[in-house]
Amino acid sequence: MRAFFRVVVLVLAAAALPVALGASSVIGALGALNAPRTDGATASPAPLEHDPAKPTAVVVVGERGAVVSDTLAPFEILATTGAFNVYTVASEAHPVPLTGGLDLVPDLTFAGLEDLLGGSADLVVVPAMPDVGRPTTKPVTDWLEAQANGGALLLSVCNGAAVVASAGLLDGHEATAHWLRLDEWEHTYPAVDWVRGTRYVDDGDVVSTAGILSGIDGTLHIVERLAGADVAADAARAIEWPHYDSDGPARMEHARLAPSDAVVAFNTAFGWDRPRIGVQLTDGVGELELASVFDTYGQSLAVGTVAVGDGPVRSRHGLTFVPRADTGAGLDRLVVPGTTDHDVIPGMEPVYPHHQPGFAFDAVLRDLARTTDVATARWAAKTLEYPIDGLTLDGPTWPWAETFRPLALAVLGVLVALGVFALLRNRSRRRRRTGA
Length: 436
Fold this sequence. Notes:
By secondary structure, the chain is an alpha/beta fold.
C-alpha cells in the first residue's frame, strides 16, 4: 500500500508543475487574442459615401469584437468589386477588438444604418465572435433577426454560423462552420443541419462558410449571385486568390485533429518566451494584408501581436483602425503590412511581407515557418482552412524547446517529491534511534 501511495504522489508531482504553469500560459494566450483595449482611446470613422443605386452590404462586429479575417476578407472583396456600398456596423460607435490586437472603428451603429437606409441592408456578413451564445451577443442577434425579417441575405463566416444559429435563423437550414467546433455546434444547435466537407453552403436566404479563409469562397459566391460571375472572377484576381471556382463550392476533406496538431498545445502552454510582434498600421494598407498578419500569427498561438502607430489610419477601402502603442517598447520584431514603404518606428528593423506578389497570407506563413517552425505554420494554415500544398515552408521542423519544457518540469517535480520522501524517511529514522 505504501509503494502504491508513493507512485501516486510521484505521478501527481510530475504533473503538477506542467499543469499549473501550462494552464496559466494557455489562459493568457487565449485571452490575449480578443483582449479589449483599456485606454479608452477612440477615433471617428471615415466620412461615408453612399450610392442609393447600389445594394448595401454590411459586416457586423460584436461588442467583444470578431475574428479579423472573417471581418476584413469579405469587406475587401465586396469593396473591390465597386458594386456595393460596404460598411462595418456595430451596436456602439467605440473601437472593437479584432483578433490579435487590431482595433476597428465601426463605420455605423445599428441606429445609424437604419437612419441611412430606412430599412434592412441587402447583405449582412456575420463573422465569428468570441462571445457567441452569451448574453453579450444579444444586441447582435436581435439586430440580425430584424435584418433577416427585413429581407437581408445573411452570410456567416466560420463560427459566425453559431452567432446566426443562436438567433434561431438557421433552424431548418443546412449550414457549415469551422471544422474544429462543428461537433459542438451540432450539440448546441440541433435544429440546424450541419454539413461537413465543403467550403460553403448556399441554403437560399442564408449562406454559411467553413473556417476563416473559406469565407473568401463564400463571399465570391455571394458576389456571383448579386453582381455576376465576371465581377466575382475579377475580385478573385484582384486579391490573388488561387482557389476561385465559379462551378460551386469546392469539396474538401473534413479536417480532424491529428498527432502533429499537438504543436499548438506546446506553443500555447509552454511558449513562455513567445515573441511579441508590433504590426505597424499605415494609411492605404489592404484589409487582407492586415488580416494576413494578425490572423496568421494569432492562429499559431506561438506569437503575440499588437497594432502600433502614431494615430488612427484609414485602410485601402476606408476602414478606420486605432493602434494600441506608438513605440517599439517591449517588441521583438516589427512587421509592416502593405505594398508600399512608410516611415517606421525608429530603432527597429522592419519586415515587409507583402512586397512580393501573391496572396497576402503566403508570405506571412513563410515568415512564421522561418521564425518559429514548419509545424506551427502548418497548424496555422489548417486553422485558417488555407490549402498550402503548393507553398514551400522552410524553417525548423518542430518547437523543440516548448516540447521539452513540460518534461523538464515533470522531472523537477519528481525530484522534489523524492527529496521530500528522503527527508521524511531520515526524520523517521532519527525518531526511531532517539526512541531506542
